[in-house]
Amino acid sequence: MTDSQETNRTLSKAYDPKAVEGRWYEFWQERSYFGADANAQGESTHPQTGDVYCITIPPPNVTGSLHIGHALQHSVHDLLIRWHRMQGRLTLCVPGTDHASIAVHTVLEKQLAKEGLSRHDLGRDKFLERAWAWKEHYGGLILQQMQLLGCSYDWRRERFTMDDRYSVAVQRVFVEWYRKGWIYRSYRIVNWCPSCQTSLSDLEAPIVDQPGSLWHIRYPLVGGNGEGVDVATTRPETMLGDTAVAVHPEDERYRALIGRKVILPFMERELPIVADDFVDPSFGTGAVKVTPAHDANDYEIGRRHNLPQVVVIDKNARMTEATNQYAGMDRYECREAVVRDLMERGLLVKTEDYPDAKVPRCARCDTVLEPLSLEQWFVDMKPLSAKAIEVIESQGVRYIPERYTHIALEWLRNIRDWNISRQLWWGQRIPAWRCADCEQWTVQIEPPSRCDQCNSESIEQDPDVFDTWFSSGIWPQAVLGWPDPSPELGKFFPTSLLITARDILHLWVARMIMSSLEFLDQVPFHDVYVHPTILTWEGKRMSKSLGTGVDPLELIEAYGADATRFGLLYMCSITQDVRFTEERVEMARNFCNKLWNASRFVLMNLEGADPLRVQCDPGGSESGVDDLSLADRWILSRLNRTIRKTNEALSNYNFDIAARGIYDFIWGDFCDWYIEMSKARLQGEQRPTTQAVLYHVLETALRLAHPFMPFITEEIWQSLPNGKARATDSLMVARYPQANESTWTRSESGIDESAEAEMTTVMEVIRSIRNLRAELKLPPKQPVPVMVVVASPHSEQLLAREQAHITNLARVGALSFLAPDAPKPLNLLSAVVPDVSSGTDVGVFVSTEGLIDAERERERLEKEIAQTRSRVDQTRQRLQNSSFVERAPANVVQKEQNKVAELDERLRKLEDRLESVR
Ligand SMILES: [Zn+2]
Ligand SMILES: [Zn+2]
Question: How far is the CA of 303 from the centre of ligand 2 (A)?
Fold first, then answer.
């Protein structure tokens, strides 16, 4: 690889990502360019974090592999990391993985099931052995996939949320919060997954609307002569655990019954009728059954009225001994049995359809969760959230897009206590030991040998582990060394930015803010960028099982990493979700090829270039400003404008705008226009200046595009001549362009307004001639005579001076100027072009004399008009068909409407043409 710096190499004929990507990734890694040393100093400052820029990636599950959402997330990560690094900041991105307790459990238990075993057959120690072996073997695959994408993270600092130092940090949080009285143990109704055999937080238990039934059941009144109270429920099996019936205190229908009792059928228990504000009189019959052991709201009602709890469903979702004849049944089997028995006894009043019963499901395995009353560890979130609210309100942490600020605040203001116990084995064991004698807990990091209350030696550690989010909630500080005072923590904390998907804003982001404020009295990051979700082209969630997912590794394989990154970033808008289409990645691949071919052209034409002029660092020597032609001044100005736009867009997280700007500049301005114009000038006196400008623009554009497309830009940059004169041996550590860095332009801003205005006019004239040629369907090589009518001397001078470009790029045979009032010859096709540089119009005329046979042209036009008319009519009819308009997706209807407009315009032009041929 070193030879690349010695001599300029030629680029192969076609760009082959596979031949390039691995090579450069190794090159960068060998030179440790991904790393950052806490004792080093950055060369430029960042508004919030001084001379450093630091990101810690959201640790993906150790079980994971890169999906398309990750690919977007990490394209953004690496874009920002490379951009800041090239600006001279000490830049660090810390990677790592999360132990993902419940996800790993699911994988391992599935494996065991295939062997006909359960984790209980294996025992805790053997199970953990397997888990670690599995993690060593398969874990971290996703990090290797990030390397394929080009991610320049500091791999030497890779962390895992269950490595030793990390575990100590997690225990420290638990112990300190316990000592402050913020962590307590309590019976609570928790979401229990009978399949995963663990409790879940509310955030892991999405409520799903599901069609069900509402059963109206009669509970006979004690001493009521056949009278009764009707209650309505979606879960009749839980009636076996009822300990009261509740009504609203203001409900006239039931006022007289408050204080009386009903008989619970089958169990033959007497239940009091209590009055509670919580009851909604409009739901069902207005009277509800109360099951404190199996419903969170009923639990609260039970507390208010001192009701007993009767547990009727166990951890396996089977009915307990307390249910007599139903004991041992599955919950759904029991539901059927209860309903059948109620019917038999004539106590089932009616059954209604209930279309949207709210059912909590396990986010992992989709099993319907069972609310159970269990003893768990809880964190009191109120004291923690107060500080976080203050910081977010004062923009101490900024959410991008801004709407997430309100969402985060709303959640924090309504925060509930957090159940952090999980009945799993793989995870961080909770550092709490219960005494068999006094039943008190000893909580500390070092395993104790005796109870700290009664000195008894019969103590046993809580078998539960922490909710995974409890450990990842300290990620940014822990990976930088906390709780030890490390140079990294001093240098890189608070970090600059957190990039995340929206679904873990609460699970993770808010909790990191709380713990960092608590332990370090600092925010963990200044900005939170919530990246868009990638949807299918139709706007639906991508789904592996429906086959609508896209595998980023397949994209990298087919198009290369640069094209995959660029295509994703090109779609990454700040305002809305991304509707994915592979065409964008294809377009990005074509863009890579375009850049490659343009670079080959430049390299082939640098032969004999003056080494002083073809410089690596613009401004390093004679500027040659006076030699510049209009095209030179224009492309340099456009370059500076693009640089400015890119830097601004990246500062504002507008990745799509930045990508489009670079695309339009390289493909449009540079390749389509400047390179085309340079072809003639490379043959003449202006060759040295043209070579210098070509070199400068290409070299700068490579630096500009590098954070988006690191591999191809490095490959080309290393092939440029004068490698030895460069300040760095790799593009990834070269300086990112700034709009005013070049001495090539006269103005301070680097923008040359008059050159841009004049060039726009020249380009418009060329475009209008090309359009007229197309209208005439002229063969590409056939020259046409063109007349321009100018209204100002400035326009005339400009077009006369730039005549060569016009004749070359629009195949003009002879260009002549006419005064506005001069008589014009017959059979002309015309267009009007605004000359923005003079504020007047330029008329462009192409004579059709001798180019076409008028008779045949009329026939041709009439035929085309007839065809176009019939297409307009067809499209209109389709749009008038209401069933089409109602059923077709909005974008399809819009497409049809645009088509009508286009065809109408075309028709108008054809008719004008026909008029002029007469
Ligand atoms: Zn589950
Ligand atoms: Zn004790």
Answer: 29
Identify the residue whose tokens are 């001078």. Answer: 797
Coil, helix or strand at residue 80: helix
Say yes or no: 599 and 737 in one domain. yes
Which stretches does DSSP call E strand in 35-89?
A: 52-56
**CA 566: distance to chain centroid?**
14
Tokens of 19: 């031949």
| CA 197 / ligand 1 centre spacing (Å) | 7
Decide if 551 is inside a domain: no
What residues contact 296, with CB distance under 8 A and at least 6 apart? 189, 371
| Ligand 1 centroid, distance to 360 Cα (angstroms) | 11
Cis amide prior to 834 (ω within 30 degrees) = no
Q: In what order do the strands lie in the sheet with 398-400?
A: 90-94, 52-56, 495-500, 525-530, 398-400
> Within a domain: residue 196?
no
**Ligand 1 centroid vs 468 CA: distance in angstroms?**
15
Question: What number of CA atoms fall less than 13 Å from residue 906's CA on the CB side?
Answer: 19
Instruction: For residue range 75-126, list pLDDT tens digits in order.
Output: 999 999 999 999 999 999 999 999 988 888 888 888 888 998 888 889 999 9
Q: Are residues 848 and 862 in the same domain?
A: no
**Which ligand is in closest contact with the Cα of 369?**
1
**Residues 10-66: pLDDT tens digits?**
788 899 999 999 999 999 999 999 999 999 999 988 888 889 999 999 999 988 889
Nearest bound ligand to the CA of residue 363: 1
**Final residue belonging to a domain, choices 316, 337, 360:** 360
| Strand ranges, E, within 119-182 | 159-160
- Whether residue 441 sits in one domain with residue 317: no
828 in the same domain as 870: no
In a domain, 139, yes or no: no
Distance 110 CA to ligand 1 centre (A): 12
CA 761 to chain centre: 40
Dihedral of alpha carbons 358, 362, 368, 374, sign: negative
CATH assignment of the domain containing 303: 3.90.740.10
